[in-house]
Amino acid sequence: MNTLELAKDKISLGQRLNRDEALALYEDNDLLYLAESARRLKEFHSGKKVFYVFNRHINLTNVCKANCPLCAYQCRSGDNRAFTLELSDVEKILRDAAQVSEVHIVSSLHPDKDFSYYVDTVKLVRKTLPYVGINAFTPVEIVNFAQISGKSVVEVLSVLIGAGVTSLAGGGAEILSDRVREIICPKKCSASEWLNVMRTAHTLGLRTNASMMYGHVETIEERIEHLLTLRDLQDETGGFVAMMLFPFHPDNTELGKRFNLRRVGSWEDLKMLALSRLVLDNFAHFKAFWVMLTLPIAQLALSFGADDLDGTIGEEKIIHAAGAKASAGITRQQLEKIIAEVGYRPVERDSFYNEVI
Predict the structure, then answer these.
(1) This prediction's pTM
(2) Is the Cβ–Cβ distance between 106 and 169 less than 8 Å?
(3) Which of 93, 118, 144, 290 sits 20 to 30 Å CA-CA off 26?
(4) Are the C-beta atoms of 207 and 167 separated by less than 8 Å?
(5) Cβ(109)–Cβ(133) under 8 Å?
């Protein structure tokens, strides 16, 4: 039995795939087989339910000291695109978000804002919206907070939990290979630092999401190694709530220009989603982030292993800066219509997939 046959045999028996088997499935390029297998696994975890959250994204600033080649969002202080929200600005946003179940906060590595700025922002959200889930900050930001405050990662996370953070955002993973990171984001935290933040958060009882950004300078083998690394950590801690895959948007980025990159096609998006669902057998939930994928592809992704369309969002700046064409926000009714058209049952959730009645 060759490697591909062995992989398919394991899938039919519900057994775990290894590195070579995952690579064989990728190279086989049988999209319909991957879709059927991933959909079956999705329905094992969540049946006919497809989730969404009534949420509001808040991007605090685009002023950043990292200057990553992959990013079109960042700028320097004094740039005419630069903005930084103060607490009064955040308060205005929250007034229009009174009914949301989750507030999602991520931003850049501002060179001048100290740790208290971020803590005070979280406290303001908690005071204004006492019962909302606060999904805030990536491991990249947590490492930065530790550096600028002189605190350990444990101390930083403990302070944020005390202020009101209920879960950690999964961004900044990109590809968990230091070879890749040296090219695409050399001033961000290393792969091991990203993993250490997640492991520490899980140890403290803080649930997190996970992610992968593909379609730039990584190899297929590095994508699969990334998935296996996440699977290993999930085996160890059980702390990941959901997985999200991001296609790289090269427009307006130094990385895109340097390597003459183009955004990968929908075939690649759907193949990577389905394969990830099969490899990450210990993840219950996979998001089809419609802002990245566009609504039509996100809807199709519901038949390729995704069981979540993320949320209403309200406003999103980071991905749109790199050329994303999707609208910045969507209504509950639109999300429910998209889900129902595929034959699934829309379910509004909170940050932890508890159903919102």
Answers:
(1) 0.94
(2) yes
(3) 290
(4) yes
(5) no
